[in-house]
Structure formats: C-alpha cells, structure tokens
Amino acid sequence: MSEIRKIEKVLVANRGEIALRVMRTCKDMGIRTVAIFSDADRGAKYVQYADQAVHIGPPASAQSYLQGQRIVEVALRLGVDAIHPGYGFLSENARFAEQVMAAGLAWIGPEPHAIRVMGDKLTAKNTVKAHDIPMVPGVDHAVTSVEEGKQVAERVGYPVLIKASAGGGGKGMRIVEREADFEEQMRRAVSEALSAFGDGAVFIERYVGSPHHIEVQVLADKHGNCVHLFERECSIQRRHQKVVEEAPSPLLTPELRQRIGQAAVRVARSCQYVGAGTVEFLMDENRDFYFLEMNTRLQVEHPVTEMVTGIDLVREQIRVAQGHPLSFRQEDLSLRGHAIELRVYAEDPMNDFMPNVGVIRRYNPPKGPGIRVDDGYEAGMEIPIHYDSMIAKLVVHGRDRAEAIERMLRAIDDYVLTGLRTTLPFGSFVMRHPAFRAGLYDTHFVGDHFDPRLLEEPKKDAAVAAVVAARLFSRMTHEQAASHPQPRQSSWRRRG
Q1: Number of structural domains, the chain?
Q2: Which residue, 347, 456, 465, 473, has most beta carbons within 10 Å?
Q3: What is the pLDDT of residues 388-414, one digit of tens each?
Q4: Could you tell me if 95 and 89 are in contact, meaning their C-beta atoms sit under 8 angstroms apart?
Q5: pTM (predicted TM-score)
Q6: Catalytic residue (choose from 32, 297, 343, 407)
C-alpha cells in the first residue's frame, strides 16, 4: 500500500482555458493554485483566478511555457507540492516529468517511462502488439530507404500511409495512391518529420480510406487498477485536428464498446500507465478497429466524457498523484445521456480554417441547462498569435443524441462573440447536416460535405438539404452493401 501524499498547492504549467479548468477543480478540493504567465497573458482570466501568479517570460513558448527548469524553480521557491501540465506544451515531455519528480514534487501525470514509450509511434506499436491489440497492416520499424518502402507498400497494398514515427497533428504524414508517387511522397514525409520533430524516422501502413477516429478514455492508479470511461467519436476534423467530438459514438454497439474499451485498458497496462490517458483507434467501414496511438495526458475533449459519466477527470488525476486508489470500479460506470463538444477556434471557416486572431469585441457565452463552456477570454482581450487559437470549448449534454444536437444549436445561436471569425458557424453547419444527424460520417466529413459558400447563403437551406440528402442516401446505400464487400476505391481517389 503506497503512502498518501499531501498536495495542498499546485502549479499549473499551462495557460488559457485548460489552466483555468484545472484550477477550478483544485479550488473544489481546497488546493491552492499558482499560475505562470508570459507577457502575452499578463491580464488573462486564469492569472486573475489563481492564488498566486508568476511571470515566466516573453510571449514565445520556447522562452516561457516550455522553460521546464525555470518552472520547477518557481514551484520550489513558492512551496508548491505538485505540478499539473494540462495539455500541450510540456504535458508529454518525459524530461520535464523527470525534472519535477527529481525536485521532490508530485507530477500529476503518468510515469516518464510511459510518456517515452507512447510518445514514439513505432515504440508504442512494438509495446502493445504483444497484448492482443489490433494493428493496421504495415511495418513496425523505421523504413530507411525508398526501395524498402516500395516493397512494403506492394505487400500491404495501395493506397498506403507514410507516417512520421515521432509525429502528430498531421505533420510528416503522406498518403500515396500509386507506386509512381512513392519516392516523392516519402521524401516529403521525411523532410517534414525532420523539420517538425527533429527525427526523420517514418513507417508505412495501409491507408484506411474512410476511417472513424474513436478514442477511449482510461484511468489507472498506483495500485494496479485500470478502467476505461467509454469512448469519444472524434471524426470531424480539419488538417487532421479535431473540431467536434461526442460521447458516446453513434457508431458503436454495446458489444463493440466493450471490446474497444477492454483493448484500451490492455494498451494502458502494456506501459504500466498511471493517471488519465487516451487510447486512439481507427475504425474502418467494416467496424474493424486498429490501434493508432496513446496520448499520455488529459485531452481537449475530456469534458464530453465527464458529462456522460459524472467523473471529474482532473480530480481523479490529482487523487492518483496523491497515491489514492481509484474511487470506483469498471462495473460502477455507466453512460448517462449524450454529450457533444465544439472547439471554438479563432479561425475562418470561409478561408480554409486559417487563424483569424484579433481582439474580442463582445463576449457572452451561452448558459442554461446542459451547457458547459470552458474558456479563458473576456471582451476586450486579444487572442495572441503565439499560441493555439482556441477560445473556448462549448459542451452540451442531453438525455439522448437528438436532444444534445438541438441543445448545441441553441447554444451556438446564443453565443455572443464578435470581433473575429470563429468556428461557431461551422459547428452549426455540422449539427444541421443529415450525415452528422444520422451518425454516418467519417474523418473526411469536411472534404466530402463542407463548402464555405454554404455559410454565406443560409437562406438556401432547402436547396442545400436536397443536395446533402442525396449524398446521405448514397452513403446509406453503401453502408447497407458493406455486408457484400466489393473492391474499394479510396475517398481521395473518388474526389480526384
């Protein structure tokens, strides 16, 4: 039985809405908080909310929020007991976790070993494959030459996906439809990987043409207990990054939910995981799922899981760091209704979702039953160009999926946010789209269905509905034919 560690003061090594969200749970638990801030965040909401706040450096992340040793020194000077990294920045940096622990502070996150293992996609694949985890057909080692790559692609079958081993966010990732394009696409993937991650290692696997992105929330303690908190559907993405998430997935049956949840637990156990983490899977049109990666931190979309389970994931993270066992068992968990999250980014959906930072003129988030807004801004504040452009997470909960969709539409309509373009109109488009309402969508939703002109002409809804209904009928016909599979052409080729 491990000793229970006292945590009375936490430094949140992050900024914006996630820093504020962590601090609110700390306050609920009677724990004092310390904020760190750059020049760009001096007047931020989370800075004002914290019990103490310390200037950490200039706006650039490399000179402020990524200064691990400086952050540890601040924590020691202020008598902090633990550090919570949030997500992004240093949250998946094993070296920083080691610095925190070496200083005698509690690290509210997984062990450095787990961060390292799951931080490299090849190492992660090799770690989990002995635990009966389905893998996308391909190789589990770095491909070092074009000739070897071509041989692998021929064996796996085109189209294939070339992926950076240390990658994320779509960087170092190339889809290859035919052998003639392979050499050029591999060269580009290696170059992108070197530039983004300092590591040019790539591997190759079969390209899943119409995948669903399904992820499973896991929690594990230091006493050998590990549970899953069901899944999140995260298939609506732009530039390989999520915009809309929901829980549970409209795609999963109870039997499939149990299977994918148990697989996620096995992944967590394979690296002796502790704390909150997320195991990500791809699911193809035949409802076969494959391990993608594990994120060794809290996810942006964690609120939808909290809404459908009633579990405060940050509270559980802190309790695990203190040495407590999980306060519930797998059989204690059940799904309660349906939740949807829209990431409200300062982006222009009319211009390929390009960042649209500036000053917020008016700001009044929606309120009411079943609505949660995690934000970090107020009217008059500027969205800095130095960081991610997310303004808020708009989360709704309903008794069922239909009610959650209608509640999200109402919340979007009630959201007052002027001065810059955001993803709010795109969220409304998604909620009204027949493919989304029917749950028949995949990661190509934006490419297959979204036309920016539709946001400019809201009065043409009837014509739009006719077009998307025709597309949906075609999709449903295809789904029904899945029981008699035919040779499948990738959606990239279909779109020319």
Answers
A1: 3
A2: 347
A3: 999 999 999 999 999 999 999 999 999
A4: no
A5: 0.87
A6: 297
